[in-house]
Amino acid sequence: MVPIAECGQDGIAIRLRWAGVAGLFIGSLAVMLPTLQADAAHALTLATLSSVPSLYAAQAVRWLRRIPGDLAGMTGRDLLAFGLAGGLANSGVHTLYFMLRAGNLQPLGGFVPMLVGDALGTLVVLYLGARLTRQVRLPGHSPSR
Q1: What angle do CA 123, 98, 34 make, to 5 degrees?
Q2: 134/136 Cα distance (integer angstroms)
C-alpha cells in the first residue's frame, strides 16, 4: 500500500507514506523557522496539520476509488478526487485550528481560498508528475501510455 501524501498548503503530492509525511513535516517547519522560534507549539501543530491529514485523505480516496498501490490506471477523475480530498482535509483542519486558536475566525474567509489553492495546486502537481513519469523509462519496465 503506497498512498499519496500531499504537502499541506503547497499541494505537492508524493508517494512515500509516513516517510513522506515526515519529510512534509520537516519541510513545513523549515519554512516556519521564525514561528518555530517564537512559538514552538504553534509551529509543531501547523506542521502536523500540514502533513498528517493529507495521508489519511489520500488513503480514503485510494480505498473509495479502489486505486491499486502502484497507482496504475489512475484517471483524471482520480486526480480530481485526490486534489479535492487533500484540499478539503488540509483546509478543514487548518480552519478548525485557527477558529479554536483565535476564537472568532470566519471559516469561509480562510477555508474557501485555502481549499481552492490546495486543490488546484495538487491537481497541477499530480498532472505534471503523471506527465513526467510517462517520459521516464526505468530499467526493465516499458513506458506507460
Answers
A1: 85
A2: 6
Instruction: Give Dmax over CA atoms of the chain in angstroms.
Output: 57
5-7 and 12-14 as β-strands: parallel, antiparallel, unpaired?
Answer: antiparallel
More confident call, 42 vs 143: 42
Nearest to 61 by CA among 30, 22, 87: 87
**33, three cell numbers:** 523557522
Among the listed residues 113, 96, 97, 29, the one whose alpha carbon sits nearest the alpha carbon of residue 21: 29
Q: Give how far Cα 29 sits from Cα of 18, 32, 123, Å.
A: 16, 5, 24
Using one digit for the tens of pLDDT, what is the confidence trace for 60-78? Answer: 888 999 988 777 788 878 8
Q: What is the pTM of this model?
A: 0.70
Residue recorded with cell 506527465 = 131
Q: What are phi and psi of 7, to 5 degrees?
A: -85, 95
For the chain, the residue count is: 145
- Are 107 and 99 within 8 A, CB to CB? yes
pLDDT digits (tens, 9 = 90+) for 32-62: 888 888 999 999 999 999 889 988 888 888 8
Average pLDDT, integer, range 20-39: 86
Which element (helix H / strand E) includes 63? helix 52-65
